Here is the input.
Amino acid sequence: MEATFIILGVLAVGMGFLVFRSYLKMKQIKSVPESGKIEILTDQNFKNQIKTGLILVDFWAAWCMPCKLMVPALNELAEDPHNEAVIAKLNVDEQRSTASKFGIRSIPTSILFKNGKEVERIVGVKSADQLRRAIGRHVRRET
Here is the structure.
């Protein structure tokens, strides 16, 4: 019985160490400047901005470390001349009404809209290639 508690204690300390180390690594992530081609959405302009075409909206917050990890992928898509979707961002802390309307419970969450309708929801950190494939699935498909 004592051996079980010792093993559980060692495992708990080990997991705590790994979590703390991950936290320190995430704190060291430097902010990457956003591409000027990424549209910034607000509660006021959201509906108008998504009503036509294909648009990928990244729901994020400034304090969210995984959201910071998404910036290079979003920049790559925004700067790609072959990308067929508009890339946009909405800060969930500043634009609460829209985030609430779409039931954003976890960030980063990206929603792909086609002509104003949600066609795909992507939760978590994704690479530019993963986002590109999601966009590709809806480029010519009718909704």
The beta strands are 39-40, 54-60, 86-91, 109-114, 117-123. The helical segments are 2-27, 46-50, 65-79, 96-101, 128-136.
